[in-house]
Structure of Beta-lactamase/transpeptidase-like protein:
Amino acid sequence: MPAPAPTPKPAPKLTPEGKRALDAWFKAEVAKGEHPAMFAIVATPTEVLYESARGDRVFGQPEKGQVDWDTTLQLWSMTKLVTSVACLQLMERGLVDVDDPKLVEEVLPELAAQPILAGYDGDKVILKKRTQPLTLRHLLTHTSGSAYSFLGTPLVKWEKQTGHKAWTAKGAKLDSITTPLLFEPGTAFQYGHGIDWAGLLVERVSRLTLEDYFRKHIWSAVPGECRSMTFYPTRRTKGRMMGMHGRKGRRVVPEPGWRDVMAWDSMDMKFRFGGAGLFGTARDYTAFLQHLLACYQGREGMLRPETTRLLFEDAFPQGGEGDTCRKGLGRLMRDMGVSQPGWHTGAELTHSLAMCVNTADSPHGRRAGSATWGGVARTQQWIDPSTGIVAFFGTQILELDWRAYGRALDGFEHKVYGALEVGAKL
């Protein structure tokens, strides 16, 4: 039975003094120089409450210009929410069933054929046949067994032994994500390529590329049509792109990172990664979030209201396997710099068919039932349906230590909720 429609309440506002405090904090945070240029947006479905973009497009090189609202970002895993929404649209149209194992068997035979990497006997890999069904639900909740090797999984050794081409490499194709699973589907949580596979499923079911599907069925529903959003590093996209950065010691340094997209062109994008492939602006991505919150509140849009509520509902397995999945999700959140102890254990988290959902109020302000995800280059979004706001906070830096960014994100969240009018916090 679908969840009841949310009760309408007054749209939240920022107090004048709260908005000034938020702006002062943001300016000071950028001025510290601990991060490259930063973007911050807070909005309701119909109004931007606060936005600011500050800093050099290339850190320490002001002669190359400042960031603005036309600046393109590498959004990486913030692509996952968009692909998940596309899957829910197909579900609404009766074209897919998230719990039907035949769907993966028939539409993604390359994935269905993958064995489970059970371990190693010395240097000899031990592979075994999968025995449990594999579904779209598993792909969308990171419980399929598909994994990223950069997180230190057993795939690191397998990739070295087989000469497997990295999915971040120029010209990477489907075979770059075609790797053994790490466990039986539905028994554990492992962040990985599940939503890249889900994106391929969208392409094959709809008979459109993800670029065309998103343009026709997602961006067209958003005011302004999110025109910056694309999988392709065109000349226009690269001409507006913020530089990627890394860190040497405590110093931020410009460097291409995992993929030197400034040296690529559209022909180099052989595969559209539904889990990590989008480029776009902070404003356009926030407009997409605003639209989803509007759908949740009962307005017709790219998803029906009852379907939109699935973005905020537990989609993990029931019982002990669900507890195992929540613990795995908690470990990922801890490694990503999240400070809340209840999130580290998974006790206050779950995962919907699209995002991580906190099941208890955040000490920094987010209400229980909020959903979030981010990109590895330090872009983060959240949707708080109880409060009635969405937020975007991000920069462009690739480093495996998330703590500095995590502190800044906590500070932003704290200032946002501290700036809300009292009625909006209730």
Notes: The chain is about 35% helix and 15% strand.
